[in-house]
Amino acid sequence: MSAAKVKMREKKMRNQPASVQYPSSQGSGQEGGDTPSTGATGGDGPSDIHRSTDRQKKHHHRSGWVRGHQRDGGSYDKEMPKYITGGAFAKARAAEVSAMLKAVTKTTGSSHVFGALPKHMRRRAMSHNTKRLPRRLRDVANRLREKSLQAGSKKKKEQAKCKSRKARRRHGNLLLEFNRRQRKNVWLETHIWHAKRFHMVKKWGYCLGDRPTYKCYRPSYRAMSTHCLLQDLSYYCCIELQGEEDKLLASLSQLTSKEAGPTFAAVLCTSGKRQGSVVVYRAGLYPSQPLGPVTFLWRPRTQGSTHRQLWIWAHPTNKQDLLAELQSVCQCTEAIVPPLVPAATTAETGPTPEPETRPEKTPEATRLPGTKRKRNCKDAGEPPAKKILGDGTRSPTCPVTWRSNSTGIVINDLTMEIVRYRLIGPQSHSVLAETFEAATDCDERNKSQTSSLWWPEHCKDESKMNLHRQQADVFHILKDIYSTGELPAGTVLGLAVDDPRLTLPTKKVKALPSVKQTQEVDEAEEEKRRELMLRGVPEHCCQSSLWDQSVRDNVTNNKMSEQELNRMKSEVLVPGSRLSSTPPQGRVPVLLVHQPGKQVGHEMNSWGAGWDLLLPKGWGMAFWVPLVYRGVRIGGLNMSLKHSQNKGIPHFPHDYPDCPAGVCFEEEQEAELLNKFKRRPPAKRTNYIKHGCLAPFRCPWQQLAEEWELIAMQTTTRTDTLTEEETTSRPDDSVAKPQSRFTVLSIDSKHTPRSLQTFNILHMNRKSLRLLSDWCRPTTSKGQRRCRVGQAPPLDSSAARQFLAEHGTSVVWVRLSLPSKGKPELHAAVCVPVAEDLRLLNKKLDGGGPQEPLHKNHFKSRIKRKKKGAKKAATSSDKTDGKESDLPNLTTSTENPKSSSESSADLIFGLWPDPLPSVTSHCSRVTLGWVTQGDFSLSAGCGEALGFVSVAGLLNTLLDQPAEHRGVVLLRNPASLQYRLAKINIEV
Amino acid sequence: MTEPRNPGMSSTAPVHPDATSPAVEMDPVEYTLRKRLPRKLPKRRNDVYVNMKTDFRAQLARCQKLLEGGGHREICVHGLGLAINRAINIALQLQTSSQGALQLAANTSTVELVDDLEPEDPDEAGEPMTRTRNNSAIHIKVFYPDPQ
């Protein structure tokens, strides 16, 4: 009897009275004698009361009615009872009857009511709508349904059930629901707009649009290269630093290095004229522990004051580390608890120092910043459920401000306080110019009285108005510019604009530049335009009221609601015309920040330039819709990845494997890809072992860098002993030789456990990068003029050794272009071509590069054995618990000496188990690195890939290659055996 | 990009590095040279900007298509810097292939180009500079003469 049958039987017997036994239970010895004979009566026949009563019963049966099939009726006669005791007999029968009744009422097996219905009466929707059932079954069905609902999802939509749709959709209730839903992942202000049109993903504590639901990959690309693409980047976190300039710079200098290019202290940036970008490292640990790239913006100096304000914009995955680091370098440990109800309580609660507690460390507090300032400021008469602006998920008592007693620096966490939109494309300035109008002056009569709004107050100050007029002038000149790329990179322009909802066109229009022909332009304007193009926006025009907390709050709190605005519009005499006067609360301070386009490399210069638009919170949708009405395309996260790919720059956090955020991203990506891989049946999966792909879902950079370092050491020592002729005259030999060494290496590398991260990325050590970039180029290609040969030392073994001494374990960011065929994919391997491959290049064969021979799957037998073992275990473990039986089985499979190190549970068909062999020498071509972004590039018209290669490996390769073929490598996708020839570019 | 761009590879406006104005004497170690794109003007359908990156035949075919299939009576071929040669070449080819039906009218002009010089000195005291330089351009009108 199988285990299932035993179980079933036990279940049946549970409700039986002790006196009633089924015939199959042979164990009860008392009955052993007489039961076999009663086989025909089956289930509830025999009883164990008295042998005598039994006999009597049988007798009774015999005399009365006899049921069922009886082969030899005579058998009963032998055990016929002589007499029956009435009481005992009745008792026994009563027990039997009650057991029977119980069995009848209790439904066993599938407890669906539909089982009671004949097949032809069943209908599909019965389980949803019980009214489709016959009435007699309805009650049962209802009960069952309720039960299953409760069991399945604990009180799922309990509340929604009791409310009607109308009630649920009522404004206040809807907002409550929205606030509940964004407790875990915060919504941006444009969330609802996006959620209707985008595939949303929950990432980094936010709900973000990934890609539109409609097909628009190519149109979005076209928008970026010819018109304008709009993105909501409000999820970027802003951290504000205030303090004396020299103190700020001194503390910040610990985070950066001048080797890697301009830092926070760059003259142009400190003046506030330009936005800067920099890669931040942990304090004093350059270049080993990077945190990630940030952009920053200084507030322009005010006269006679050294007090400065600095905004640092960081990615949300990066923010926590950055904030902690900033607090430590600025010694800002005193958290200032925001006053709970500032309006009601006394003037100002002093900065209550919170000793040593770092509330920001907890994950939910970290990314869920933002205050309920708005709610607090309003009086209590408001409805309780207010739309939360900024981030309402954090408790209002959570500190966002830290101050240092020693340096006087104040750190302010402005996450979700400022809305940031990015416009990409050459026409983005014309979109801006058409959407915005510089704020109009307020009326004369308003000037005299004091107002709670910021703009009338602003108007009173003549110097401020002067500044505003100048800013408006600059903004007007923008219209005369044809392409956004013509402006100096990173220019900043402060502005106050009218509410853009007032000038909303009735239909979507495409904003086009209105460039006048040169004849029409008068001299002065032309001069201004030239000035703007050459010098950028003058320094004083970069000032904006957006920097002031008070102004931001004022604007946010006094925003006119959509409803009110529509009412005013409906009262206009001529329908559809503009409002005669701008309402006093309809002016918003904004900041426009120019984003440089492609700056590296030779092709597609300044592609993807654009503007960033910074707004006070709460105004997101008021600006979003008017921008959309100017014919821009909207992109999601997907498009920002493509944008950086076309620009040839690394994208955060995808391409920063040395930053904590990048490591985290790689792990997530691996898990995701592995899950996707496992969802396919094993026969339909790519067998990566056979393709010779060791790690298709991640890139073991660490191992790569170390292996190449060893190889480089060995080759350099070898070249020391040998003469130079080896590298030049016998290229085949020099390539083939290292390969013999790799086997040795691979054993080596297995034994050394690596926990410490030693590899690093040559981020922007510009000098080294430039040198490497020069070496990568073929020296004799036509049209290539090397004007600075004298400075760049030519590539030879001594120069390479010197370089390697500095950057031996580094990997370097490269762009690979495939001139002929092939579309690189994620994690494609970059390999070193052997001499025959280069000869292939000479012949210009269109068939592409060489092929990788198929590898053998050594793990196949092991997986099979494991499977078989598992099956055996299942069959043998009949009575024992399943878990116990598995364990000994595992040990039997791990008896195999080879697999002793790994647990066989890790074996996945088609994937290499965890301790990887040497990654460099696994295939027929030596691996240099991997691709982290690869696609068909619409801008280049061929496959393009971005990734990292080992510096040591690259230099070794370059040394071995003949001068005219320098920088040619092979590229192979993880799921393919075909190598493709590619050209390597290092762009500075 | 530290060294002058390869003229053959520039995107739309091939420029000669030698054409710099002598006023700004820069130390190449201290500055990174970044060239901005030339100023663009609104483009009509019958404007053809010639560059050195696209295949010559493709550009010629494009012009022919505009004149024959596109129904334009005249087109303008613009070339800047190194592409002047090519623009002239295209115009002449168009004329010969039309057996003299087309006429040419050439205009030359000077285009102001902007370079950014980014300082690279370690103490970050240098002001970034912008300089302008001039480059020649040609605008050739290729048209069918009026019947009268």
In a few lines, what is going on in this structure?
Chain A is an alpha+beta fold. Chain A is about 35% helix and about 15% strand.
* Mass-distribution shape of chain B: elongated
Shape type of chain A: globular
**CATH-wise, what's the superfamily of chain B?**
Alba-like domain
Mean pLDDT rating of chain A: 73
The strand count of chain B comes to 5
Low-confidence regions of chain A = 23-64, 341-385, 721-757, 780-790, 877-904
CATH level-1 class of chain B: Alpha Beta
Helix and strand pattern of chain B: EEHEHEE
Strand content of chain B: 25-35%
User: How is the main sheet of chain A built?
Assistant: 8 strands, antiparallel
Q: What Rg of chain A do the Cα atoms give? A: 38 Å
Distance between the termini of chain B: 55 Å
- Biggest chain contact: A-B, 38 and 35 residues
Poorly predicted segments of chain B: 1-26
Structural features, described:
The complex is a heterodimer of chains A (988) and B (148). Chain A has 988 residues and is an alpha+beta fold. Chain A folds into six domains: 88 residues, no CATH class; 28 residues, no CATH class; 172 residues, no CATH class; 207 residues, no CATH class; 269 residues, no CATH class; 36 residues. Chain A contains 34 helices and 24 strands. In chain A, helix 32 runs antiparallel to helix 33. About 16% of the residues of chain A have low confidence. Chain B has one domain: 2-Layer Sandwich (Translation Initiation Factor IF3). Helices cover 19% and strands 32% of the residues of chain B. Chain B has two helices and five strands. The N and C termini of chain B lie far apart (55 Å). The N terminus of chain B is likely disordered. Classes of the chains: A alpha+beta (988), B alpha+beta (148). At the A-B interface, helix 20 of A face loops of B.
